Amino acid sequence: MSSDDYELKAIPQDKRARELWLQHAAGLIFTEDARNYAIKKINENTDEPTRQKIIEGINDALYGVMMILDGVSGNLDNERYSVSLETKVTLIKKDTGAVIDEVNLTEGDGMCMGYHDWLEGDFGEDPVAAKK
Question: b/e map of 41-58 (b: 16 or more CB within 10 Å)?
């Protein structure tokens, strides 16, 4: 599946709950569109122990991306300049294009913290999305 196979559920009205909801939404997108995409690419004739090792590598690589998103790694610098990545998750009203809310993931609660729950299909207290 991909995130296109899901439909957003009710958006929490409480600001803090919505911040967490947005971060979980990002987690759903990363697990569905990156992790599950890579898993689907594993040759169907691959034996199970090898398949599990490949999935472990996929999980480790995506966790590395989560560390970059959290700002734990992914910074280049010299004595005068630095380069870093920032990613934000944005809630947009489709009919007007208005930004309703957004969270810079580097300043969020921690993509690394949510990652292990997302691998288990847990995307928080407020449901983010449901399969269409």
Answer: eeeeeeeeeeeeebeeeb
Structure tokens at 117: 């729950």
- Please spell the DSSP secondary structure of 58-112, one letter per residue: HHHHHHHHHHHHHTSS--EE-SS-EE----EEEEE-TTT--EEEEEEGGGSS-HH
Residue 8 dihedral angles phi and psi, to the nearest 5°: -60, 145
Burial of residue 60 (CB within 10 Å: 0-12, 13-18, 19+) is: exposed
How far lies 111's CA from each of 21, 34, 96, in Å?
12, 15, 29
pLDDT digits (tens, 9 = 90+) for 7-56: 999 999 999 999 999 999 999 999 999 999 999 999 999 999 999 999 99
Task: Report the candidate in 78, 76, 41, 84 with the shortest Cα–Cα distance to residue 61.
Answer: 41
Quote the DSSP letter at residue 3.
G
What is the rounded distance in angstroms from the CA atom of residue 9 to the CA atom of residue 39? 26
Please classify residue 82 by burial: count the beta carbons closer than 10 Å to its beta carbon, then call 0-12 exposed, 13-18 middle and 19+ buried.
exposed
